[in-house]
Amino acid sequence: MSHAALFQPLRVGAFEIPNRILMAPLTRARAEAGHVPGDLIAEHYSQRASAGLIIAEATMVMEGNSSFISEPGIYSAAQVEGWEKTTSAVHAAGGRIFLQLWHGGRACHPILNNGTQPVAPSAIPITNDRVQTPEGKKDYVVPRELADAEIPCIVRGFRLAAINAKAAGFDGVEIHGANGYLIDEFLRDGSNRRSGPYGGSVENRARFLLEIVDAVIDVWGSDRVGLRLSPLNSFNSMLDSDPVGLASYLAGVLNERHLAYLHIMRTDLLGIQSGDVLTPVRSVYQGALVSNMGYTAGEAARDITAGKIDAVAFGVPFLANPDLPERFAAEAELNTPDPATFYGPGRRGYNDYPRMAAIPAVV
Predict the structure, then answer these.
(1) 306, CA 20 to 30 Å: which among 3, 39, 178, 218?
(2) Catalytic positions, written as ranges
(3) Could you tell me the pTM of the whole model?
(4) Domains, in order of start, for the chain
């Protein structure tokens, strides 16, 4: 098997996972009314339980911060009960699953949140895209700059979400610090122009993230907490004057937290920013390093063998291939995903992709 490195076990915090093929968090907009995950979501994740670790989709930590239509939350009793269906189904299928904790920040829209203006580190809107709402595509609005005194409330929101994720039966959580949502907005100087303790220097811009990390660790222990970062990704109008320096600084201070893993999106989805953030992070970060974006099985196996990374989180390939690890092991053809069905509703393009045909046993 030419991809053998993908099937070596890996210590990820509290767990030894059986392979290095992680399922990346993928927003699919299949939640029910009230942002409650239901049977459809449980079926979807249980189909993909052969992943070394499933990282469930971006999930709202607080009410009133929706950036999509029908994304799930983890702030209500009904949502906790709904997620229990998923964790039970994944565990019954032999899998492990973390929940990604997320605040949309300036990527939220008043139409999706009962007229509430979105919040951000600075009053700078997203300008390189439009948001899908029940009234069609709309421009993003100018967000309201958070006051320093409001920030502890959001940190507590992440902590409560971590408590709820534990009650729902997850094996751990991943903090979403990527892709131009609230935490990432604080980290990068293109979106954070504030002064005071949460703006200016890289140390100050990282303060919000680290307060959330520490609050979530207080709930779960560090060995069941992961973190996703995207230092280069310009999605949601994100830029930073020194992405390599930012990534290197974060890698150093995160060593002190002993996380289960650090999950890095290695490139820019829109191709605006370029550079190598993995090499400097790898030279500093001492824990399990997960990479993401555009990997084939062959490249993932080569980079793991070379020690550049420890595992790969596959996104789009898992959309259409619920049995992705089995297909990689057999070097089988992959199903082709249908982009028209990426964002809900229903089973089509979500739970109806075929599994690989059984390979006859050799007699």
Answers:
(1) 178
(2) 181
(3) 0.96
(4) 4-341 (3.20.20.70)
